[in-house]
Design a protein that fits this description.
Strand content: 35-45%
CATH topology: Pnp Oxidase, Chain A
Oligomer: single chain
CATH superfamily: Electron Transport, Fmn-binding Protein, Chain A
Number of domains: 1
Radius of gyration: 15 Å
CATH architecture: Roll
Number of helices: 3
Structural class: alpha+beta
CATH class: Mainly Beta
Helix content: 10-25%
Order of helices and strands: HEEEEHEEHE
Shape: globular
Strand order of the largest sheet: 2-1-5-6-7-4-3
């Protein structure tokens, strides 16, 4: 689905935005940490950052339970507007629970983000996103990766 340039952009991105919608199509977007798993799945944890609600009460998890269609946007900004770029992926999401086989997802997240080494990801849900289509625009070589 992704061309090589888009795949590299997705793999090297550090933050994305996850857009969900509830059953009434009310949109919601939240920044996420993520990793690419098995070349076919984007994963993002419901991690231990301070939350005001439990993992199953968060808007994104409730939305996915009602409507699995999501979008993931990875982008970068620079003052040189000729170098802006983004990648948007539409797909379907599901919530994997700690008792599901999530070992590979946890390994991928800990490999990408050192900060997850001391998070108990094994005890938290992980969102699995199966990409369906992608759109990209602009410069996919980030200025900070030159």
């Amino acid at each position: 689905m992704l061309d090589p340039e888009e795949r590299t952009y997705l793999e090297t991105g550090r933050v994305a935005r996850l857009a969900t919608a509830d059953s009434d199509a009310r949109p919601h977007a939240v920044p996420i940490c993520y990793a690419l798993l098995d070349d076919t799945t984007i994963i993002t944890p419901i991690d231990e950052k301070p939350q005001t609600k439990g993992a199953h009460d968060l808007r994104r998890t409730r939305d996915i339970a009602e409507n699995p269609h999501v979008a993931v946007l990875v982008d970068h900004y620079t003052d040189d507007w000729t170098r802006l770029g983004w990648l948007k992926i539409h797909g379907t999401a599901e919530i994997r629970q700690p008792d599901d086989d999530i070992h590979d997802a946890i390994t991928a997240l800990r490999t990408k983000y050192e900060q997850y080494q001391d998070h108990a990801l094994e005890d938290r849900p992980i969102i699995h996103i199966i990409p369906g289509s992608s759109t990209s625009w602009g410069e996919l070589e980030r200025p900070d990766h030159e």
